Fold this protein.
Amino acid sequence: MKNILLTALVAFVALGFVNAQDVGASPDYIKTLTSDWTGERFPDGRPKVSDALLNRLKKIRIEEAWGYLRRKGYNNQYEGNWQIIHPEGVMTGRVVTAQYMPLRPDFQQTVKLQGAAENRDTIGGSNSWPIEILKPGDIYVADGYGRIIDGTLIGSNLGNAIYANSQNGVIFDGGIRDLGGLLEIEGFNGWYRGEDPSYLQEQMLTSINAPIRIGRVTVLPGDVVLANRHGIIFIPANFVEELVLASEVVALRDEFGFQRLREKKYLAGQIDTRWTDAIKADFMGWIKAYPDSKLPMTRAELDGYLKSHNY
C-alpha cells in the first residue's frame, strides 16, 4: 500500500513539474489567479470584462482609479515615466502577459521545444507567440525588464499583426524598433521605455499569461489597463465595474463643486472637505436635475450608488 501511495505521489509531483514548464499558463491556473472574478471568461481562463466598461473606463482619471485601488488595499498598481507612440491617446483593455529574460541558449531551446509541444509556430521567433493568441480588446503587456538595445520586442511587422488581432495596443517594459512604421498603423498605440534600431537577439520569451512585473506593479493575465499620458493603472478585473461607477460619481461631484465655486455659493474649504448635510442636499437637487442623456452611467446605477453611500 505504501509503495502504491509513493508511486502516486511521485506521478503527481512529476505531472505538476511538467505542467509548470508550459510556456502558456493553463486556464485552470489563470482561474486560480483570478478567483475573485465571478463573471464571464475567455476559453483561456482570463476574465472577460465587458467592452462597455472598457469604453467607460477611458474617461476615468488616473488619480481616481489609483485612489479607489488604494482604498481597497492595492497600493502598487501604478507605473509612470513612459514613452508613448501617440501621447494624446487613451487605451483600455484586457491584459495578455508575456515575460522575457536575457538570452540563455539552453533555456531558449527548452522553451522552443515546449512551444512546439503546445502547437505554437516554431518557424518564426517566439516573440510572435503572444501575438497569435490576442483577442479583440486585449492589450499585450510584456516584461522586458527595461531592456532596449537588442531587446526591441516589436517593429512595424509585429505591430501590424498585434493590431490585426486585438484592434488595440501594447505596454512594453522594454524597447521597440521602427517607430516610424508603428506611427503609421491607424488605431495602434503603445507605451514603452525606448526605441532602438537593433532587433531582438539577446532576449527570449519564457512565459505567456503568467504573473509578471511591470515596474512597481505585479500584473496578472486578465487585469484591465487604463493607460494615458499620465501613466498606467493595472486594475484587477473584479474591481473594474465598481471602480468605474465610483470614479464617475466623483467626476459628477467635482462638476457640481466647480460650478458652485464659480457661482461663489460656497468657499473652497467647504467643498474641499467632508460635505455638510446642506451641501449634500444641494448636490442631490443638482443631480436630480442633471440630464439623463449626459450621465456616464444609467440613472438606476447612479441612484443605487448614492443610496448605498448615504447621500
The chain has a mean pLDDT of 93. The first strand starts at residue 78 and ends at 79.
